[in-house]
Amino acid sequence: MVTTPVWSSTCISRGLGISLSTLRYHVDFLEKNDLVVARKEKNLKVYFIVGRLKGADRNMASLLQQKRFRDIVLTILINPGATHADISEKLNLKAPTLSKYMKVLEKRGMVDVLREGRCKKYTLVDEKGVTELLLTYRKSLWDSFVDNVLEIYFER
């Protein structure tokens, strides 16, 4: 199981009770000295301790830091084979918005798509890996939904 925390600068700043500018100064120092590596996800920068996570885990961890992606992945985790309409309804997301997120998850290799006529059913490619990352980073995600889904997942 992966045991190295992954956090965004906002999570670290909140957790330590320091300003973002102070945090960025120190994280930049760590980055310049090859102790941490950063990965950008649109407007979010996620930090990893060098050498602790494989590329696939980094890929998943950086997306799981973002609430919308995390909610979609969690929904599929407790409802394997959920359709586009199921996910859209459960998360109260409009179909076109969900489609944009699903394309990213498909492109990153996190979800498999099974087409049945006009219907798409989704499953996680690496359910075990996602579950391990969620368990490991549960505290850094600041989200009670994660705890609730993990509880449901382990009860099934």
Write a structural description.
By secondary structure, this protein is α+β, with helices and mostly antiparallel strands. 58% of the residues lie in helices and 18% in strands. The protein has helices spanning 9-16, 20-32, 55-64, 67-78, 84-91, 95-107, 127-141, 144-155, and strands at residues 7-8, 36-41, 44-49, 82-83, 111-116, 119-124. Strands 1-3-2 form a 3-stranded antiparallel sheet, with helices on both faces. The protein has a 3-stranded antiparallel sheet with strand order 4-6-5. A hairpin with a 2-residue loop joins strand 2 (36-41) and strand 3 (44-49). The longest helix is centred in the C-terminal third of the chain and has 15 residues, at 127-141. The radius of gyration is 16 Å and the shape is elongated. The model is unreliable at 1-6 (pLDDT under 50).
**Strand order of the main beta sheet, please?**
1-3-2
What is the oligomer described by this structure? single chain
**Which ranges are low-confidence, i.e. pLDDT below 50, for 5 or more consecutive residues?**
1-6
Number of helices: 8
Most strands sheet:
3 strands, antiparallel
Strand tally:
6
* N-to-C series of helices and strands: EHHEEHHEHHEEHH
Determine the strand fraction and express it as a percent band: 15-25%
Shape estimate: elongated
Structural class: alpha+beta
Alpha-carbon distance between the termini? 21 Å
Alpha carbon gyration radius:
16 Å
Helix content: 55-70%
Mean pLDDT: 78
